[in-house]
Amino acid sequence: MRVRDLNVPDLASPEFTQALCRAEKRIEEALLVGKISEHSLMYNQIEILSFPIAVVMTSALNDTFLKRRYATAEAKKASALLQKEGEKEKIIKVALNFNWKIRAVKTGGFAVHFSDFLRNSTASFREKEWKLINRRMDKGAVYLTQEATARLLEEEVRRYVEKKLEPEIEFELPQSIAESIERLKQLLETRKVKFRKEEMPKEVVTNAFPPCIHQLHKDALSGRHLSHMGRFTLACFLVHAGMSVDDVVNSFRNIADFNERLTRYQVEHIAGERGSKERYILPSCDTLRTHGICQDMNRSCNVRTPTSYYKREIYEAKTRGETQ
Question: What is the distance between the alpha carbons of residues 34 and 255, in angstroms, rounded to a whole number?
Answer without folding.
Answer: 9
